[in-house]
Amino acid sequence: MRNAVSNVHFQVLARPNALPRARLGLVVGKRTDNRAVVRNYIKRTIRETFRLNAQSLAGLDLVVRSRQAFGRKERVAVREELQDLFARIRRRCPV
């Protein structure tokens, strides 16, 4: 079974690690948005959401791939979607 979950904005891949903490990898390509400012905003949002949920994700290596750009107006909804993906991947990938 592949340890991946996704929605409109993100795809999250996971694999157990032997560490007491979680690690994060990011993929935000130019296909998401040509402007570096937007890509950097997406990465900051992902990192902050990961930081707030890192305790519950301990023991996992995660890769978050951005599928669609979003702006400041959608920030709250997108963060909730990403938290939901983190919860789903946690249930799917036991340590």
TrEMBL record:
InterPro entries: Ribosomal_Su5_D2-typ_SF, Ribsml_uS5_D2-typ_fold_subgr, RNase_P, RNase_P_CS. PROSITE patterns: RIBONUCLEASE_P. Keywords: Endonuclease, Hydrolase, Nuclease, RNA-binding, tRNA processing. Signal peptide: none annotated. Its EC number is 3.1.26.5. It is an enzyme of class 3 (hydrolase). Gene3D superfamilies: 3.30.230.10. PANTHER family: RIBONUCLEASE P PROTEIN COMPONENT (PTHR33992). RNaseP catalyzes the removal of the 5'-leader sequence from pre-tRNA to produce the mature 5'-terminus. It can also cleave other RNA substrates such as 4.5S RNA. The protein component plays an auxiliary but essential role in vivo by binding to the 5'-leader sequence and broadening the substrate specificity of the ribozyme. This is Ribonuclease P protein component.
